[in-house]
Amino acid sequence: MHSVQFTAETSSDGVVERDFTMGGIPGVLWSPAPGSASAAASGPAPLVLMGHGGGTHKKWPAMPGRAHRIVYGCGFHVACIDAPGHGDRPRTAYDEQEIAALYRAREAGEPEGPIVVRYNAHLAERAVPEWQATLDALQELPEIGAGGPVGYYGLNMGTAIGVPLTAADPRITAAVLGMHWPDALAAPARRITVPVQFHLQWDDEHIPREAGLALFDAFASTEKTLHANAGRHKEHPRFEADSAARFFARHLTRPVPAPVLS
Amino acid sequence: MHSVQFTAETSSDGVVERDFTMGGIPGVLWSPAPGSASAAASGPAPLVLMGHGGGTHKKWPAMPGRAHRIVYGCGFHVACIDAPGHGDRPRTAYDEQEIAALYRAREAGEPEGPIVVRYNAHLAERAVPEWQATLDALQELPEIGAGGPVGYYGLNMGTAIGVPLTAADPRITAAVLGMHWPDALAAPARRITVPVQFHLQWDDEHIPREAGLALFDAFASTEKTLHANAGRHKEHPRFEADSAARFFARHLTRPVPAPVLS
Question: What is the dotted CATH code of the domain comprising B5-89+121-251?
């Protein structure tokens, strides 16, 4: 088993950002700054795994933005790793081929959906075991610990990876997902029973409305909430990052020990 | 023009509850207790008009529950009046006839929709001018004032009344609505352009999913958010009252005066 190797550390607004590598995969861990208002008095705190979108990376502006809300707002840790072929990671020949196909479709004004669905399904097969090994390693850190609450937060490609990951790993007990086609994801979604908050754009020019609603419908969770906002694919409103933070605050709490009768 | 006549006052948890009558209509106004953490330092505060559901009344437990979240959480005022034929108000012969028809349908296991749609449309015609007169009178109070931000919050029958009210009254600048059929409401919804948060139950046994989604789709608002939760009609989760409070906190703020250059 690989362990987390920290390589750099910065701090701002009560949040410590630590770069790490784990078995060659580059990642970042955001944590409450010691002594800040949101830091736990002592002991471990819950962890949110955050998946970035297609074509971006672990420090794309939305990632630290969402992480700060969760670290500062909830006192939790947030981790993000570069997906295969993304960020600081090399691309395979297949990656290059699919990315070229995507650009060709875009330029020709053809639908991106079939390529994104296919390529993201491939990336998810590579990414799910990587995330599980990363979670193993992160849970070795004393400030996170084994057996604590774990959430997952990822939209777009982050959902293509997050749905099979959440279906596969019982350590994940709450997930914020959204903005993807159901083709490869409805089947694993039907095995997910943990609370889900699902975001979609009502006027998404890439993902047909019925396709987005079908994926939300597929989750077997008894607690699931759809947040659908007016607007196109890239107009996902920033206040939904606050909705996600509140969702995790509600669900990622450690069980309160039963009082000992004396 | 009628004015608000206060008839009783109680206070709990930082919230003052004052019963009133306005032109014979009984209502209740919840306000921040003077000196409490949420009370404005001075001057008027925003107002949320709250419509109750069918068969209930202005003090049905959900009403003070939602009001406390908004008063205590945002420092706003919240007002609710009994709808025609509800609470402390007399029923007409037509009210009795429609209520009997509804109970007959329920007992026979027939769909309630057609009766609820028809009866609520009738009640809305009576209720909209009552709400407008109530708002006129409430804006005479110094702690609310004319020209300040006004929201509307009502589900079920509260939406049957709230959609035509919001379409008709430009003083209402943000609305939380939901859980109704689109039949009588899609047309006025298409005239609404203010921000809307819309709640529906994904597994509603009375309102077909497509019907609820069609009403959300009808709003012309550029900012509108659908919150759809797993569960049946009466399982609407309590945390959505917090979503509503945050929505009003975001939208019902007074314009900040431009700084005066000296």
Answer: 3.40.50.1820
